[in-house]
Write a structure and sequence with these properties.
By secondary structure, this protein is α+β, with helices and mostly antiparallel strands. Helices cover about 40% and strands about 25% of the residues. A four-stranded antiparallel sheet has the order 2-1-3-4, sandwiched between helices.
Length: about 100
């Protein structure tokens, strides 16, 4: 399983990434581990806001790519309401390939 996730940082920005282990990856970001993303080393990770499960890395990467290109307002809506995944991305990804878990 692969996960596409969104993390809220202390400055209220949102970081999006993929992983095979949500807990481990969030802890790496939060602790600013050497494996943490450059972004979360500068913008301290605060909370795991959303996550979607997918079968393959390809699906997870596609979702990550398209979420990263959404505006901040659309990312906030996506965090609040999973229906926005279809609203904003149904023309870009097959939303049936993703299961929201957070």
């Amino acid at each position: 399983m692969y996960y596409t996730y969104m993390i809220r940082c202390e400055d209220n920005s949102i970081y999006t990434g993929i992983t095979t282990d949500l807990e481990r990856r969030f802890n790496e970001h939060k602790s600013k581990d050497e494996k943490a993303a450059k972004y979360t080393k500068r913008h301290t990770a605060k909370k795991l806001e959303s996550a979607w499960e997918s079968e393959t890395r390809i699906f997870a990467s596609k979702l990550e790519y398209h979420i990263k290109h959404l505006s901040k307002d659309k990312k906030e809506e996506l965090i609040k309401d999973n229906k926005c995944l279809g609203k904003y991305l149904s023309d870009k990804v097959d939303i049936s390939e993703y299961k929201k878990i957070i």
